[in-house]
Amino acid sequence: MLAAALVFSIAAAATVGPADISVADAFGTILSHLGIGTSPLSALHDGIIWELRLPRVLTAAAVGAGLAISGAVMQALTRNALADPYLLGLSSGASLGAVCVVLLGLQLLLPLAAFIGALAALAATLLLARLAGGLTPSRTVLAGVAVSSLGSALTSLVIFWTATGDSYRNILGWLLGSLSGAQWSSAGIAAGALVAVGIPLLAASRILDGFAFGDDAASALGINVPAVRWSMLAATALLTGAMVSVSGAIGFIGLVFPHVVRMMTGPGHRSLLPLSALLGAIFLIWADTAARFVFEPRELPVGVVTAVLGAPVFAYVLARRKGGA
User: Fold this and answer.
1) Best label site of 98, 121, 171, 173, fewest CB within 10 Å?
2) Digit-coded pLDDT (tens) for 251-264
3) pLDDT per residue over 238-250, tens digit each?
4) How far apart are CA 176 and CA 303, in angstroms?
5) Alpha-carbon gap, residue 212 to 72, rounded angstroms
6) What does the pLDDT look like over 82-111, one tens digit per residue?
7) What pLDDT was estimated at residue 231?
């Protein structure tokens, strides 16, 4: 049912805007570009759907799914309910790397720089937690907060030192999370990372079940705990870096939706990972639609919308968990 809701959301969100286009016509146009039938729309409206809105909607879907998967995997590997790419510093590290190459005029290296920044931030978080006494859940979160703050401060310093003119506004909008510049290339990067990294992580549900019950349980399943943990954390850094490179830093998706799904289906990762991905995709599609439509002609950064909507939901989830404890 969620898969059907995702397909409907993609077509319906593509119709939201000044041009009067029905969901049925949007489906017809999309199918015609896939070689099925002919487009029911004029050339102008066909271009609005295919060239402008659909790449943005598909980018939002892939980014939402990727961030939700990253959050669920990090929570299992660290056994920390608060772990997500934003809180553990990955988003800040990816943002720092991306801003550096943007200001240097090397946009083609943006995905690589975002991945390197995310991986460096993750390594710094885990190293700091280990130096503080070990990778306990509380130390990992505190170390992530410190690394995230440092990454944000360095990003601000780089922007303050080098950005000029309108670049301040453009970079600030990107740092708050924005899909306004999404094109087919953006959708390709996000979808490619989701297929190359996200699907293998989805197939690792049994391994993540072992980590969720502790390192001893994982070892009993025959898992090489240190090697698998580091390789999977590196995979989440790659997935997060790819998503941040096309959307900026968007918080709360990786934190909230794994908890929402656990409340519905339990902790098993065989259901948790794909359902979190679907809910994250649907949520970000409509959050981005709200960001560009509610205050039209002014457009909000989608990261602001996810924070406004995600914070109350997470507070509710925390209250439910406390009540059930």
Assistant:
1) 173
2) 888 888 998 898 88
3) 888 888 888 887 8
4) 5
5) 11
6) 777 777 787 788 888 888 887 777 767 777
7) 85
**The pTM is what?**
0.86
Tokens 């090489």, residue?
Answer: 224
User: b vs e for 57-83, b when ≥16 Cβ sit within 10 Å of the residue's Cβ?
Assistant: bbbbbbbbbbbbbbbbbbbbbbbbbbb
85 cis-preceded (ω within 30 degrees of 0): no
Helical axes 269-293 vs 205-212, angle rounded to 10°? 100
Phi-psi region of 278 (alpha: psi -120 to 50; beta: other; left: phi over 0): alpha
Q: What is the per-residue pLDDT for 63?
A: 94
Burial class (CB in 10 A: 0-12, 13-18, 19+), 88: buried
